[in-house]
Amino acid sequence: MASLQFCSECNNLLYPKADPHRRIMVFACRICQYEEASESKCVYRNDLLTVTKEQVGVTTDLGSDPTLACFLSIDGEIYLNMTSRLTRM
Predict the structure, then answer these.
(1) For the purposes of burial, counting CB atoms within 10 Å of the CB of 35, is it exposed (0-12), middle (13-18) or buried (19 or more)?
(2) What SS3 state is found at 63?
(3) CA distances from 78 to 23, 44, 58, 66, 69 (A)
(4) pLDDT of 32-46, one tens digit each?
(5) Bridge partner list, 24
(6) Are the C-beta atoms of residues 29 and 35 closer than 8 Å to each other?
(7) How would you class 83 by CB atoms within 10 Å of its CB: exposed for 0-12, middle for 13-18, buried for 19 or more?
(8) DSSP 43
(9) How confident is the model over 46-85, as pLDDT tens digits?
(10) How far does Cα 69 stand from its chain's mean position?
(11) Rounded to whole angstroms, how far apart are CA atoms 24 and 37?
């Protein structure tokens, strides 16, 4: 995983930069022009597998939601009218 790196001379942040002559990525300081070769080619990693997905299912507090329309049927059961979109993949 990519981490922040700091200049060994002035302790400022090192920024990734391409070196066209050596064709490698280096970390360079914007203050004192210090450069060091990158050990890893990873600058940023976006891990999508750890993002929690929204779970569609029965919600326990729908009966107390005042914004949902409520219908009382003949048999005494209460039905909530909720519209939602279903996407198929």
Answers:
(1) middle
(2) helix
(3) 69, 51, 15, 14, 10
(4) 989 998 887 776 777
(5) 19
(6) yes
(7) exposed
(8) S
(9) 777 655 666 666 667 766 777 766 555 666 666 656 555 5
(10) 34
(11) 8
